[in-house]
Structure formats: structure tokens, C-alpha cells
């Protein structure tokens, strides 16, 4: 029985194929090693950082006067700005570098996950976010406290904070890899660690000044920078190909992936040639409307990054509008990066100098190779700015959201504090969260470079570890009115345990332990589990957690009345 799981990039709401980036920067086998930025590149990069700092100062001139103003912008942000900020929050450096790599080796079916997010946005906003806003919640975990008590809330907050910091730490480390490669010409641990520290110092200082209002407005600038860089990259690759658009389409339609399908394939049903389910296929209609859909809903209803933005809207209707609009606008953004990957395929595989010289880079390194070997001075600096804009500098949203959860759910109420004191406490929390996240990011850098265990695989799966059981809990509480403290804690444990069980090293250990029983049906089950793509991990963890949580009985009656606008929740 083979456990060589085929893990490509994962089409999820909050993450993209992080594994590709880590492998790219750590191997650097296509001539990008030793390639550093030139003077013009540095000028462009420093100009971007100056623009970002200036914009942050401009939008934070009116200092937050209270905790509610600092963390929720006094519920005054327009829906369209929230929508664009949600796009920035949902994407990462892996989108900028990993999605083109996914398109280079795959098809347009990657976009199916993003299409399912529209459905997820509608369901999440109408069934959950509208209620959060009407209840005046400061975080989704305040609802858990009202419905099932403080112990249940603490368990959920712990799951969220740990999962969020692990994922954000891995993303910060991954975003530091191409920066280290560009600045120092290598990805040695000291250089990567220095880049991590610089990124975190900038992010903490940036977040500290203006709170979520400054973060949201600056997100608009960030989206413009990385989307503009991607469009410029498309123009440069298209120019380098030097073929009419019709011929490029023809090349792509004739080209086949390793699975034997056309690269222009959009609709992949997720079925095997025999008619069964292709369990290892991550990008299909089946996975899009199961695991990817559930993950989208989970992030929108239980990740404070997204919930905080919905709560910054003036009305519940604006919260719904901004969430749905973000999912719709996310599709053309991802299509830009997919198209870039397709053009890189045509360049390297059919007409590019790399193909002629026989030095075609592997898929996981294709965009980085083009940046460092084919782009002119100055443009390379803009591409690094794009990576920073979509990736590690965007970590300010995580700092603000985790600090807001700590303030809302873990610390004593700030009613005894003046507005100015509460605002100062909020800033102190941001610094504390930033210091912890810096430590997690440095640990991720050390762990990845000294351990044989797949840290990035774990970072991908940490989404399911945290958000699958959390979604099951919110479905039970909000939609079914069921769940007690004991069932919520057990649901978190069950979902976590399912995700652990599905990890390849664990499956190998189980197989080895069962070796004396070789030939039993267990071997087939283990082989099937090892073949599962990431979206199915999320489905299985959600189903198990839901089955456990729903056994907890009805929630507190006062909380149920509050949802109908009659109890404590309505006055919150």
C-alpha cells in the first residue's frame, strides 16, 4: 500500500498553495539562487514602502478614541471598502506565486473553488453574519458564551487563536522566503529570520497606529499594488511569447496536463474514469461544493479576520452586501493569476528561451524564475512589492483580529476604563500578539529548515484542524439551537483528532501497527484515506464534529430568545 499522497495546491478561501512557495524558495534550482535586487529594484521597493507608510499615516490621522473605534471603526466603514479588504484578507503571498504555478501544471478548474465561494458568502452572510451584527457582537465567540457558557467560549477561542497564529506564522515565514532570496540571494536561516523580524516590526508598527480603519483603507492600496504587478507580469510574458492571442489559445487547447485533459478545462466533475469519485482531485466541482464551500463558510463565520470586517459595517444589510461582493470580486482576481500561469506555460514549454535551452523550470518555480531571469530592473522590485502587498505585510489584519478576540472574550470588560485607556489597552494587545506571532514565525523558519516533517502541509491542514469543528459548533448553536459546553469541547477534540488521523505520517504508523493483519480490509481503508485531497479532510472533520456537538441538547433559552431580538442578545 502506497502512501505517496499527491498534494498539489489547495483551492481554499484563506490560503493558496503554500507548499509550492516553500519548495520554490528552498530549492532555488533554476538560477534564481544568488539573484538579488538591483539599485532600481530597491528604489521601486522603497518607494512602495514609503507610499504604504504615508497612506497608513494619512488614514490614521484621526486616532482611535475608544476600543470600539480601534477594533471596529465605530461600525462606520462602507460596504465596498470592506469587500475589497476581505479580498486582501483572503489571499496571501501564495496566491501571487502559487496560483500561477498551479495553472502552469494544471487547468482552469482551480477557479471552481472560488465560484463556490459565492454560494458560501450568501449562506454565511444571511444565516450568520446578519445575526452577529444584529446582536451587536464583538466576536463570534461572544455568541458561544451566551449560548453555552464561558468554558465553551474559552475552548473555541483557544482553538481559533492557536490555529490562526500557526497559520499566520507559516505564512509570514513563507512570505519571507522570496524576500530573503531577493535581498540576500539565499534562504539561509539567519537571512530568512532577519526578513521575518523586519516584516513583523513593520506590520506591528503599521497596525498600531490606526487600528482596523487604517488596515481596511490600506488594504485597498495593497490590492491595487499586487493586482497591478500581476497585470504587468501578464503583459511582459505575453510580449515575450510574441504570438497572436489566437495561437496562444490554440497551444493551450492542444496541451494536456499529466491527467490527460486540456489545460483550458474549466469544468471538472471530480469523477474517475471508472465513474467513481476521484478522491485525490482537489480542483473539481465535487470538492468545490463540499470541502471548499464548507471552508469558505467556516472562515466567514468563525475567523475574526472576516467577522471583524462585517462588524465594521454600519448595518446588517451592509455586512451581507460586503461579504457577497467580496466573493464575486475574488473570481476575476484569481483569474488574473491563473492566466499568468497559463502564459508562463506557453512561454517555457513552447516558445520561450528556457525551452530552447532545455532549462525549463519546474512548475513550483516557474514564476520566480521568470521574475529573476527575464524581467528588467525596476520591474523585479515591483514584483517583490506585489509579494509583500498580498502576503506578509498583510499580516496586520491577523494582529488586529486576534487582539480584538483577546480583548472581547478573554480580558475583563473595559467598562471601568475610559475610552482613551481602552484604546491604549487595544494597542498594547496588538504589540503582544505581534511579539507572539514573531516567535511563531521564527519557529516555523527553524522547524522547516531543521526538520524532515512537512511544516507547510501542516499549515494547510491547520485550516481544517481549527475551522472544521468551529463551523460545526456554529451550525449547531445558530441554526439548530443545540450544543452544551461538554459537547462543544468534545466536538473540537473530535475534529482535531480526525485531522490528525488523516495525516500521512499517522496513517503510515497505523499501517505499520496493523502489519500482522495484512490482507484485511483495513489496508484498503487506509489507502483510501491516504489518497484524500484536502477538501475531504475538512468534510470528514466537520461531519464528525457536528455529530458530537449536536448531541449536547438545547442551548440556553435566554440565548435563543436573544437571537429573536427578545433577550440579552438583542440589547448587546
Proportion of beta-strand residues: under 5%
| SSE order | HHHHHHHHHHHHHHHHHHHHHHHH
The poorly predicted ranges are 1-34, 560-572
Give the averaged pLDDT, no decimals: 78
Largest sheet: none
Can you count the helices? 24
Defining traits:
572 residues; mainly alpha; globular; disordered N terminus
Describe the structure.
This protein is mainly α. The chain has helices at residues 18-27, 39-59, 67-72, 79-90, 93-105, 111-135, 140-148, 150-184, 189-241, 245-254, 285-302, 304-311, 316-351, 353-357, 366-374, 379-390, 396-410, 419-450, 455-480, 485-501, 504-513, 521-531, 534-549, 557-563. Helix 9 (189-241) packs across helix 13, helix 9 crosses helix 18 (419-450) and helix 20 packs antiparallel against helix 23. It is globular. The N and C termini lie far apart (56 Å).
List the helices and strands and how they pair.
Blueprint: H1 18-27, H2 39-59, H3 67-72, H4 79-90, H5 93-105, H6 111-135, H7 140-148, H8 150-184, H9 189-241, H10 245-254, H11 285-302, H12 304-311, H13 316-351, H14 353-357, H15 366-374, H16 379-390, H17 396-410, H18 419-450, H19 455-480, H20 485-501, H21 504-513, H22 521-531, H23 534-549, H24 557-563
Provide a compact summary of the structure.
With 572 residues, this protein is mainly α. The chain contains 24 helices and no strands.
Amino acid at each position: 500500500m502506497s502512501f505517496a499522497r499527491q498534494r498539489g495546491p489547495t483551492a481554499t478561501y484563506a490560503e493558496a498553495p503554500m507548499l509550492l512557495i516553500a519548495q520554490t524558495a528552498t530549492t532555488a534550482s533554476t538560477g534564481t539562487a544568488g539573484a538579488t535586487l538591483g539599485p532600481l529594484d530597491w528604489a521601486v521597493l522603497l518607494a512602495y514602502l514609503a507610499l504604504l507608510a504615508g497612506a497608513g499615516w494619512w488614514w490614521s490621522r484621526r486616532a482611535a478614541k475608544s476600543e470600539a473605534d480601534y477594533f471596529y471603526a465605530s461600525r462606520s466603514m462602507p460596504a465596498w471598502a470592506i469587500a475589497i479588504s476581505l479580498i486582501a484578507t483572503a489571499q496571501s503571498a501564495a496566491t501571487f506565486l502559487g496560483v500561477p504555478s498551479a495553472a502552469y501544471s494544471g487547468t482552469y478548474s482551480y477557479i471552481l473553488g472560488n465560484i463556490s465561494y459565492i454560494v458560501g458568502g450568501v449562506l454565511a452572510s444571511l444565516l450568520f453574519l446578519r445575526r452577529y451584527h444584529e446582536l451587536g457582537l464583538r466576536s463570534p465567540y461572544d455568541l458561544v458564551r451566551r449560548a453555552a457558557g464561558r468554558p465553551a467560549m474559552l475552548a473555541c477561542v483557544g482553538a481559533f487563536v492557536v490555529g490562526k497564529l500557526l497559520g499566520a506564522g507559516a505564512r509570514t515565514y513563507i512570505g519571507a522566503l522570496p524576500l530573503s532570496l531577493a535581498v540576500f540571494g539565499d534562504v539561509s536561516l539567519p537571512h530568512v529570520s532577519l526578513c521575518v523580524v523586519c516584516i513583523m516590526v513593520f506590520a506591528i508598527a503599521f497596525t498600531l497606529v490606526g487600528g482596523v480603519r487604517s488596515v481596511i483603507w490600506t488594504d485597498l492600496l495593497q490590492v491595487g499594488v499586487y493586482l497591478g504587478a500581476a497585470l504587468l507580469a501578464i503583459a511582459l510574458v505575453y510580449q515575450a511569447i510574441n504570438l497572436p492571442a489566437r495561437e496562444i489559445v490554440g497551444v493551450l487547447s492542444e496541451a494536456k496536463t499529466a491527467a490527460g485533459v486540456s489545460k483550458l478545462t474549466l469544468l471538472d466533475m471530480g469523477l474517475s474514469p471508472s465513474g467513481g469519485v476521484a478522491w485525490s482531485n482537489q480542483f473539481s466541482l465535487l470538492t468545490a461544493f463540499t470541502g471548499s464551500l464548507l471552508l469558505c463558510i467556516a472562515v466567514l463565520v468563525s475567523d475574526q479576520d472576516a467577522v471583524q470586517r462585517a462588524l465594521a459595517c454600519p448595518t446588517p444589510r451592509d455586512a451581507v452586501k460586503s461579504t457577497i461582493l467580496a466573493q464575486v470580486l475574488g473570481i476575476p482576481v484569481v483569474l488574473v493569476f491563473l492566466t499568468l500561469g497559463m502564459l508562463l506555460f506557453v512561454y517555457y514549454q513552447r516558445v520561450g528561451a528556457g525551452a530552447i535551452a532545455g532549462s525549463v523550470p519546474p512548475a513550483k518555480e516557474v514564476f520566480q524564475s521568470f521574475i529573476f531571469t527575464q524581467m528588467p530592473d525596476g520591474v523585479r522590485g515591483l514584483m517583490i512589492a506585489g509579494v509583500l502587498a498580498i502576503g506578509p505585510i498583510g499580516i496586520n489584519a491577523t494582529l488586529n483580529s486576534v487582539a480584538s478576540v483577546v480583548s472581547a472574550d478573554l480580558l475583563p470588560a473595559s467598562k471601568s476604563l475610559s475610552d482613551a485607556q481602552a484604546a491604549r489597552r487595544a494597542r498594547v494587545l496588538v504589540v503582544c500578539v505581534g511579539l507572539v506571532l514573531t516567535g511563531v514565525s521564527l519557529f516555523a523558519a527553524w522547524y522547516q529548515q531543521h526538520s524532515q516533517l512537512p511544516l507547510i502541509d501542516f499549515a494547510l491542514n491547520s485550516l481544517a484542524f481549527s475551522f472544521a469543528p468551529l463551523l460545526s459548533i456554529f451550525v449547531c448553536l445558530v441554526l439548530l439551537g443545540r450544543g452544551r459546553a461538554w459537547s462543544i469541547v468534545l466536538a473540537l477534540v473530535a475534529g482535531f483528532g480526525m485531522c490528525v488521523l488523516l495525516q500521512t505520517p499517522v496513517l503510515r504508523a497505523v499501517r505499520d501497527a496493523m502489519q500482522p493483519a495484512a490482507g484485511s480490509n483495513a489496508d484498503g481503508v487506509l489507502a483510501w484515506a491516504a489518497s484524500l485531497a484536502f477538501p475531504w479532510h475538512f468534510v470528514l472533520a466537520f461531519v464528525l464534529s457536528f455529530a458530537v456537538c449536536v448531541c449536547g441538547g438545547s442551548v440556553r433559552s435566554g440565548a435563543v430568545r436573544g437571537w429573536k431580538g427578545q433577550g440579552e442578545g438583542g440589547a448587546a
